[in-house]
Amino acid sequence: MRIAYCVRALIAVLGLAAVVRPVASNEYFNDTFYEVHRVRRSSRRKHIPEEGSAIQNGFMEDQEMDKRFHHRNSRKSHLLDPEDSGNRTVDCCPTVLEMIEPLGGSNQEGLLVELYRDENYIQRFYEYSCQHSVVDKPCKFINKKLHAQSRCVQRHSFSYALVKNTPSHRNKNFPTFPAHGNGGATYTLDYIKVRSGCSCVVVNKNKKRKNTRKQHAKT
């Protein structure tokens, strides 16, 4: 009896030890998992400010680059346009816009024609004339080697005008129009010569030498 009682007690102790050991293992596992999880979370929390600071630093660098780019562009535009005059351009042979009301003009054949006008109607034309200071003078902004050979010359074109019809220069391609109060005179369309701009011309050296030789030969 005493042996049987001891055997039962030993079995009970072994069973209790088997139960206590898994519980302790589970508690150790839970403690270890909690510590690892806490370390991971703390490491993430520490890493987030670093990412934020990196983003902030990148943003500050982008702002600094934008400032430099803006400064470079403003400096470039200032160098291109020192007078802050918009998109104004300067010609090598400057012109002047003029409005004229001529009594007559020269047509394509070189004949003088009389323009129509009365008390109520006057023909007006707009011309681009060379500035007086640049006519037959060397052009601006030209190569130094060609500067002495260049000069500004007046250019012309032809514009429509209503002129008096005469047999000497009658243009069959245009019809005639009667005018009231002008003694039965008729008028027709024709072209007259107007100033249309100022251009730069470079004279050939050989041609210039030939002209000087001819002048010396005449003298």
TrEMBL record:
Residues 1-25 form the signal peptide. InterPro entries: Cystine-knot_cytokine, Spz/Toll_ligand-like. The keyword Signal applies. Coiled coil: none annotated. One of its GO terms (molecular function) is Toll binding. GO terms for cellular component: extracellular region. PANTHER family: NEUROTROPHIN 1-RELATED. This is Spaetzle domain-containing protein.
